[in-house]
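Objective 1.3, modelling of assemblies. Example input:
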Amino acid sequence: MEQINFNILAFYGFAGLAVISALMILMSKNIIHSVFMLVLVFLSVAAIYIITNAEFVGVTQIMVYIGGILILMMFGVMLTNRIDGGKMLTEHRRIIPAVLLGLGLAFVFYSTLQTKFPLAEFGPQSELDKSVTETIGINFMTHQLVALELTAVLLLMALIGAAFLAGSKFEDKK
Amino acid sequence: MKQSEFIAYITTLIGEFGYLLPEMTLIAGSLFLVVLDLLYKGTAAATVRTLATLVVLAATSLAIDAAPIEGAYLNGVLAQTAVTPTLKYFFVLMTAAVLLYPNSRVQRRTGEYQYLILMVLLGTFFLIQAQNLLLFYVALELVSITSYVLIAFSFQRKGFEAGIKYLLFGAMSSGLMLYGLSLIYGLSGSLDLALIPQMVAQSSDPTWLNLALMLFFVGIFFKLALVPFHIWSPDAYEAGPTAAIALISVLPKVAILVFFYQFTQLLDTTDVELFNWQYALSILAIGSMFVGNLSALRQNNAKRMMAYSSIAHAGTLLIGVIVGTAFGYEAMLFYAVVYGVMNVGVFYFIDWMEKNELENISDLAGLGRQFPAVGVCMTVLLVSLVGLPPTGGFSAKLLVFSSLWDVYLQSSDSYLLWLFALGILNSAISLFYYLKIPYYLFLKTTNSTQRYRVGAVSVVFLACTALLVLAIFFMADLLLEMLF
Amino acid sequence: MTMELTNYQIILLFAVGGFVAIMGSLVTSWVLRPRRPNEEKLTTYECGEDPTGTAWGKFNIRFYVIALVFVLFETELLFLFPWAIVFGDEGLNALTQGKWGMLAFVEMSLFILILALGLAYVWGKGFLEWEKPDVKVTDVESKVPESLYEQLNTKYQ
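Predicted structure (C-alpha cells):
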C-alpha cells in the first residue's frame, strides 16, 4: 500500500500548490507577481502529469508553458505602455456575480464527485508493445494523422495571424 | 491494436487519402497565397490576390466529389454523407461572395486577409466531416482562432478590443469544452463518435456523463452565440470588418450545427438515462430568440442589429437539433442555406453603408427613392429575414416549424409546444426591426443633400441575392433535392 | 512491496532534491549571516555609476514577435519527439513492408514544410529584422599615399 500512499500524497501536495498559487494570482494586485505565480501553477500541474505516468504531457507542459508561453506573457506585461516605473496594479470588479457563478460551478462538480467516476475499459494493452511516448508517436501517424496535419495548418495560421497583428504596428514606421 | 490489423489500417490510410482532395487543394491554395503575398508586391497586388483566391476556390469546388461514397473513411476519422458536397459548395460560394465586398479594400491590401478567410473555410470543411472528437476540436480551434484574428482586422482600437474580448471568452469556453471532451474520453474510452455510444453503455450511472456533456455543450453554445453565451457577439460584430463578419456569422455556425446534430443523434442511441437535453436546448433556443429579437429592437447601429438578429437566428436553427429527426435536419440545413444567402446580401449593403460612412439605420432616410433597385432588393432580403412569403425565409421557417410540430404531435411534450408558439411569436417581433430599414429607405424623407453612389456591381450583387431568396421560395423542392 | 519509479519520476526526485539543496543553502546563510546594512551597501552597484530610473523599461515589440515565433516552433518540436522515436521502428517497418516508414516520413515532411513556410513568412515580411544603428564610416585622409605602403609591403616580403 505504500506505493499508493506516496503517489496520492504527492498528488495532493502538488494539487494544493497549484490551487494556492492560482488563488495568489487572483489575489495579487501586482500583475508581475501574478505572472511569477503562474510559473508555480504550471510546474505543479506538470508534476501532477508526471506522477500520473503522463510523462510526455508533463515534459510538454514544462517546455511549452514555462519555456514559451510564460516568456511571452512576461513580454506582454513589459510591452504595455503603462510601465513608467510604477507597479502595474489590477483590480477586481463584479465580485458578487463571479463568486456566485464560481460557487455554482463548485456545487455542480461537488455533487458529481459524490458518485464514482466510471472509468471506461480501455481494453488490453496494445499488442505492439510500446512505451507511452512511442504509442503517442504511432497514434500521430495513424489514428490522429489528419488531426496532426491540421495542427500544422493551425499553427501556421496562428503564427501568421499573431505575427501580423503584433508586427503591423512597426511595419508602418519604415 | 493487433499486428494484422495494423497492416490493414496503414493500407487503408494510404489508400483513402484521395478522399481529402478538396481539403488538400484548399491547403495548397492557401499556402500558395502566402507565398504569393511574399513574392509579388506590385501595384495591383490586392486585385491579383483576390483573383488568386477565387481561382483557389474554383479549384476546390472542382475537386469536390459531387457524388461521394457515403460513410466513414480514413479508418473512421472522417465521414461523408449525401449532404456533404452540397454544404461544401455552399461554403465555397459564401466565401467567394464575401471576397467581393466593396469596402474590404483595407483588408484586401494585406495578403493575410484572404489566407485567413480560406482558413475559416478549411475549418468548416473538416467540421462537417469530423467523426473524431480530437479532430473536431482542432478544426473548431482553426475556425475560432482565425475568427479572433479576423475581428481585429479592422485596425481600429475598437477592433482590437473586440478581438481580445472574443479571444478571452473563446479561450474560456474552449477550455470548458476540452474538459468535457476529456471526460467523455475517460468515460467511453474512445474519441471516435461511432464507438462512443456502445462504450458509454457499459456503465449505468450517467452523472459523470451528464457533467461531461454539459461542459461540452457550453463550448458549442458559445461558438453558436446562444444566450447566455452571446455577450461577445455584438461587440465583435460591430468592430470587425463587415466582410469577415458576414462569413463568420454563417459558416462556423452551420458547420458546428451539422456536427452537433450528429453528436446528439448518438445520444439517442444510448440506453443511458441522460438529462433531458432537448428540454435544455429548447430553453436556450427560446432565450436566444427573445434576447436576440428584443435587443435588436433597440439598436440603431445596423451591424449591432444584425448581431442580435444572428443570435435569434441561431436559436431558430437550434430547433433542427432539438427536433432530431431527418426532416428536422433537412429543415435546419435548408434554413441555414437561406439564412446564409440573406445574410450575405444584407451585410453587403451594410458594407456599402460603411463605405459611405453611414453607420446607423436612421441615416438611410430617403435613400430608397434615390436608388429604387437597391431599396427593393433590400426589402426582399429583410422580408425574407422576417420569414414572410413570398421569400425563401418563409419556406425555411415553415419547414423548421412543421418539423417541430410533427415531433410535438408524436411526443406531445408541452415544452415543444411552447417552443413552437414562442418561436412564431418571435418572428412577429422581428418584423418590427427588420422592416425599420425599408421604412427609413422609402417612407422617411431627409433634408440632407449628400449624394451617394451605387456601383452597377453592387446592384447586381444585391439583385442576385434577392432573386435567389425569391427563387428558393418558388422552387423550394429543388433546393431540398440538392440537399438530400 | 517495492516502488517502481519511471525515469521521469526519478527526474522529478532529482529536481526536488536540487531545489532543496539550493534553497537549503540559501536559507542557512540567511539564518547565519550578520546583518549590518548601510547606505553604500544597499545601492545597486557598490562602485561606479548611480543608476537612474527603473529597470522596467518599455520593451521593443520585436522581442515579442520573436518570442511568438519561438513558441510556435517549440510546439512543432514537441510533435517531432514522439514521431522521431517510432519513425524508424524496424518492427513496424517489417510488419507493413516499409509502408510505415514511408507514411511517417511523408507526413512529417509535410508537417515540417507547412511550418517552414511560417518561418519564410516572418522572414520575408521583415519581422526578424532588427533596427540597426547607422554606422558612420569615417574616411581618414592620409597624406601618405597608398602606393607607399604597398611598396613597403612588397619590399619586406
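Chain C has a mean pLDDT of 82.
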